[in-house]
Amino acid sequence: MIRSFARRTVIVAAAAALILQMLVQPAAAAPGDVVADIVTPEQRTMGPSIAFDGLNLYYTDHAGLLLHRIDVPPPSAAPQPPIGHIDIPITGAPAGIMSLSYDRGRDAFWAIGGDGQTVYLLSKTGAATLVFAVNIATDRGFPQFMHFVHEAKIAYDRSDDSIWYTVDATTRIYHYHTYPGAMGNAAQVADTPFVDVAAAPNDMTAQCGYSQSSGVAASATSLFVTVSGCPYYFEYSKTGTKVAWYAYGAYDDPGNGKPNQDAECDDVSYPVSVFWIKDAWNGRIRAFEQPAPAACTFGGGS
Question: Which CATH code is given to the segment(s) 31-289?
Answer without folding.
Answer: 2.115.10
